[in-house]
Amino acid sequence: MKLIGLNREEVKTAIKSGEVTIAVYGMGKMGLPLAAVFADHGARVIGVDINEKVVEMINRGENHVKEEPGLDELVRRNVEAGRLEATTDGVWAAKKADVMIILVPTLTDERGNLKLGPVYDVAEKISQGLERGDIVITEATMPPGTTESLIPILEKSGLKLGEFGLAHAPERTMTGTAIRDITGQYPKIVGASDEKILEAVIGIYETINRKGVIPMSSIKAAEAVKVFEGVYRDVNIALANELAMWCEEHGLDALEVFQAANTQPYCHLHMPGAGVGGHCIPVYPWFVINLAKKTNPRLIKTAREINDSMPHHVVELTVKALNQVGKPLKGSNVLVLGLTFRGGVREFMKAAAKPIIQELREWGANVYAYDPLCTREDAERFGAEWKEDFKDIDAIVITADHREFKELDLEKLAGEMRTKVIVDGRNVLDPEKAKKLGFKYYRVGYTPQ
After folding, report:
1. 280 flagged as catalytic
2. At what angle do helices 284-291 and 298-324 cross, to 10 degrees?
3. Which of these, 12, 134, 156, 159, has the minimum number of CB atoms within 10 Å of its CB?
4. Largest pairwise CA distance in the chain
């Protein structure tokens, strides 16, 4: 059923009654939850992925995104009901669908230079199945202006923009909470190529999102929203890190000061830490930096420099803590806890552990690593030796906030470690308990005087 020209209520009715087919391109950690949610609200959904194994699993009703609570049941239920299927044939999916959503990975290097090949490949496939009245939506986060760069590719279909619709509705989700985020944690941001398309796309997302939709004046404005969210967090974290290091110099506990300051409604200092990782926050600032012409985004550049320097600062804290107990870093046994960039997620993009391990080794330390989501091979790839106990360890460096690390038995550690030093790069432990057990406890923003 073609949605262009319908008002948002008519769109919602059409989706809920099963008259609309939606193709979601990219069945990864964001795409599969979105596809399953749309199917659960009545749409016929075709998931498209280049990975044949993923497609086969979905068609059996099996969920391959295990970090997402509730997704197993959502996939199983909607496959059994005939509302959700998957394919590797993106052209066939486009021919069948009324709405095509692009949610494939947008790959970047560490300076945010985007590799848009997967997005352009999907657009080429869609163009071969695009029909009058179809709507193409990008959800993948991209530099402002990127969605509209797909227009010449889509017009290879023989249709002109206006005969088909184009929109951007950035995903605002995190691994582990994707279903919650999609269905109502935040309102959906939408920008479209004209008012008719905007009205239809509002109806599409109001069907699944209890918080509703925030319409933007343009596709480019919608793209900027998601990018600016990431830039804000990066700059705020950099400010927190800089203030935390100032607190170290002046004998203050940064978290004590931040928590008190944040009771004032206009203050929202973030958490300092060992570094900023992932595919989002450390990457999006480069979209702004790289697109700047006359403007020089000095603050954003400085924030990136500060956050990228934090793994080095954690090594400095480790040196200082070991010196406090009369040990050089060279020859010390250091256990890095956490290889992933954040707790509960097995992702390594810009994980703080990698540069920390590298620098510790350059100082001559014997470096070990453990992560409950990882393997011995992961540790070796990072340059560390896998270790699952604390025997003969001189210092622990925590770089990921896994639940297991928050529940560490400090008394057991005190009994097993050779030297009782903890550098808590994620603020997961109780400093008072650690100090009572005789640990030298350091963290970003706190060093014992």
Report:
1. yes
2. 140
3. 156
4. 75
> How far are the Cα atoms of 223, 291, 436 from residue 144, in angstroms, in the given order?
5, 9, 52
Q: Average pLDDT, stretch 312-341?
A: 97
267 belongs to the catalytic site = no
Catalytic residue among 29, 125, 188, 226: 226
Sign of CA dihedral 405, 410, 414, 420: positive
pLDDT at site 129: 97
CA distance 349 to 342: 10
For 370, residues 6+ apart whose C-beta sits below 8 A from its C-beta are 335, 336, 337, 379, 386, 387, 388
Residue 145 pLDDT class (50, 70, 90 cuts): very high
Q: Give the Cα separation of 341 and 399 in Å (integer).
A: 8
What local confidence, expressed as pLDDT, does residue 280 receive?
Answer: 85
Burial class (CB in 10 A: 0-12, 13-18, 19+), 148: middle
**Tens of pLDDT, residues 400-423:** 999 999 999 999 999 999 999 999
Q: 25 - beta bridge partners?
A: 48, 102
User: Which of these is catalytic: 280, 301, 320, 406?
Assistant: 280
Give all domains of the chain, ordered by start, each with its CATH number: 8-217 (3.40.50.720), 301-443 (3.40.50.720)
DSSP state for residue 163 in the 8-state scheme = T
By the 10 Å C-beta count (0-12 exposed, 13-18 middle, 19+ buried), 138 is classed as buried
Quick check: 2 pLDDT over 80? yes
Q: pTM to 2 decimals? A: 0.91
